[in-house]
Amino acid sequence: MKKILSTVALLATIMIFAAADHGLSPIGKYITQWAPTAVREMYRSGVPASITLAQGILESRYGLSPLAAEGNNHFGIKCHKDWTGKKQYHDDNEKGECFRVYDNADESFRDHSDFLRYRDRYKFLFEFETTDYKAWANGLKKAGYATDPNYPSKLIKYIEDYKLYEYDKMSLADAERLMGEQDVHAAASQPDRVSPSVSETGEKPAISDKGGESVNTENPAKVSKAEKKARKKAEKAARKARKKAAEEDEELSGHIPESPLSIEEPKRIDKNQLEEFKFSLSREAYSKNGVPFVSSVEGETYSSIAARYGLFPKELLKFNDLTVEQELLPGTVVYLQAKKNQSQKGLDKFIVDDDSQTLRDICQRFGVKMSSVCKMNGFDADYQPREGDTIILRGKKKK
């Protein structure tokens, strides 16, 4: 018990120093208010908390923009074809563009995470570590999130000026618990000494009394060795708590994916499992959503693969949502067991970016039965997805 309290106290020390830097400025208030939400979304979706907070500060002018104030839209997300909710119109790149309206800001934060998580053009971002905020910032620009060429540098400046990277290392429980510590510290601190940083509205950056870019109330030279040691221990404890939370999430999902942030990368099957699957050891097999598969090579057919693995041809076709054999192109995923009724935990849906994808293509990609996807979404078997459609892969579609 003493050890747990000690860990919390150490983490509180880190957060109090961070709160001192925030002061009571509009940006500091925004960070204090929304940091727990950003950390929660990081654990749910894989989007770094620092990136979420920096984008929120920049896109919503720390919650004061008309989009945020009138429509709870903190990330400047436009309507797009898949949006069926409330709308508001503002001039952006073009006059009178359509933007999403949310019932509350929490919905905006969740939709922002999903917007990045479930669209193919942002998929590569999840190959980066959640602590690599620079890669994420540059990747967002590369993927087309914003047209401003200085977008990455603006995000990075917010993250570094306000030490938002600290939230990327926090456990969910500690982030929510320690926000109370920040509130207490902020109430007892001196009046504002930090003005809003650079934003797209053209506001001036924060200037310290000594001409720096931002005020830092902590003097590094006065930080004792004990305090430095305490911080290191706290950071280590936070990383350990985060790892434990991830492991618990994997246990609940029933399997351990190669990467909890990947929506496509398969994992290689452990050779210890090959006996159970009755696979030949002479050929590499993989697994997606816990379902074993092979990648076809030149000259193979569904019948030849079925024969190789001791399956009936019709059985193999059924595993792959086919009723009749068709041409098998090299590199095609061929499942060797029945696919799952839903996708792995964390991949609740998929947003279509390409009209050429069929429903079967999507089901093969995520290792889910097409019949189950049709049932979850209320689709007919011949349904053809369109750009912007949201395909539910876990649970049921909300009406």
Describe this structure in words.
The chain has 399 residues and is of the alpha+beta class. It folds into 3 domains: 2-253, Orthogonal Bundle (Lysozyme), CATH 1.10.530; 267-335, no CATH class; 349-392. The chain is 44% helix and 7% strand. It is built from 14 helices and 8 strands. It has a 4-stranded antiparallel beta sheet. Strands 1-2 form a two-stranded antiparallel ribbon. It has a two-stranded antiparallel sheet with strand order 7-8. The protein starts with a helix and ends in a 7-residue tail after the last strand.
Quick gist of this model?
By secondary structure, the chain is an alpha+beta fold.
Which class of the largest domain in CATH terms?
A: Mainly Alpha
CATH architecture of the largest domain: Orthogonal Bundle
Tell me what portion of residues adopts beta-strand conformation: 5-15%
Give the overall form.
elongated
**Radius of gyration using CA atoms only:** 25 Å
Q: Determine the fraction of residues in helical runs and give it as a percent range.
A: 40-55%
- Please count the beta strands (DSSP E, at least 2 residues each): 8
Poorly predicted runs of 5 or more residues: 1-10, 16-23, 183-223, 248-265, 269-281
The biggest sheet, with number of strands, parallel, antiparallel or mixed sense and barrel status, is: 4 strands, antiparallel
Biggest sheet: strands side by side, in what order?
Answer: 3-4-5-6
Number of helices: 14
Q: Could you give the order of the helices and strands?
A: HHHHEEHHHHHEHEEHHEEHHE
Mean pLDDT: 74
Q: First CA to last CA: what distance? A: 47 Å
Q: Compute the number of structural domains.
A: 3
CATH topology of the largest domain: Lysozyme
Q: Class by helix and strand content?
A: alpha+beta
